[in-house]
Amino acid sequence: MDANRVRQILSSSADIAVTYNGTSVWIDQLNEDGRTATVHLRGPLEERTIVEIDELKEV
């Protein structure tokens, strides 16, 4: 995924499915470097992780 698509997803009111290593995640923010994003797993756990945006996949 590229930075522009991450920005579009963040600004959208739609529920857009995104996965990281096959696991469904929410994107919390695009980080200042433009290459990483902070995400958390969909579900009850709110643990946040910083990942490379090129590893995010839109389903």
UniProtKB/TrEMBL annotation:
GO biological process, one term: asexual sporulation
Pfam families attached to this UniProt entry: SspH
Major site of localization recorded for this protein: other
Induction cue: Expressed only in the forespore compartment of sporulating cells.
One term under GO cellular component: endospore-forming forespore
Record keywords: Sporulation
Compartmental location: Spore core
Transmembrane residue ranges: none
Sequence similarity: Belongs to the SspH family.
Protein's recorded name: Small, acid-soluble spore protein H
